[in-house]
Amino acid sequence: MKRIFILMGLVCSYFFSQAQLSTAATFTETNFTDDRVPGKIMFKKNGQYVKAYLNNVPSAVLADFTKRYEDPSIVSWVIDESDITGYFNLDKESVIVSYKKDGYLVSIRKTYDSTKLVKQVRDFLHDELKKGYLINLVTEIIINDGTLYEVTLLKQQQVFVITLSKKRNGDILVSDRLYYTQVAVKNI
């Protein structure tokens, strides 16, 4: 009688575990975008992303993350073979943090509007702002040797994207300048 209950228990657990696997959300490399459902934890397994749990995020990563960010909004995690990436919003900034599995912080990427741009960078852009450009969007990437800023400026039908590099010593250098002109399309 005990053998029957054990056998039935094994069979039931097998079917329940298979049902759980078949209902897990999966993402391929091509359709996995930044428009994730908040709070999801995804793990890359055999080339596909499957649902994971907070205990899949290494403790060294969580320790550094909680030390840096005390109260972020809901965090989504993506766990690859060698990298862990967290996506969340904090103080009207969209933030992406990238770690190695050992807890080493690779980069922090923030996207925000012009009101959060640091004064030193805003002052550096003074000549462009005098030409009538307005700061639209800022992407800030913090890495070991400094900070990169990609600032989008707008003026009527023109878009100007300037990439700045701020070194640890405070020096700011222009890395790239791109000008775009919007073309109006007429209906024929």
Compact description:
This protein has 188 residues and is of the alpha+beta class. It has helices spanning 2-23, 59-68, 119-124, 126-130; strands at residues 41-45, 48-51, 76-79, 83-90, 93-100, 105-112, 134-143, 146-155, 158-167, 172-181.
Keyphrases for this structure?
single chain; 188 residues; alpha+beta; ten-stranded mixed β-sheet; 10 strands
Number of E strands: 10
Question: What is the helix tally?
Answer: 4
Give the termini distance in whole angstroms.
Answer: 82 Å
Q: Roughly what fraction of the amino acids lie in strands?
A: 35-45%
Helix percentage: 10-25%
Unreliable parts: 1-37
Q: What overall form do the CA principal axes indicate?
A: elongated
Secondary-structure-based class equals alpha+beta
Side by side, the strands of the main sheet go 2-1-3-4-5-6-7-8-9-10
Mean pLDDT across residues: 79
What value does the Rg take, in angstroms?
23 Å
Largest sheet: 10 strands, mixed
Could you spell the SSE succession in H and E letters?
A: HEEHEEEEHHEEEE
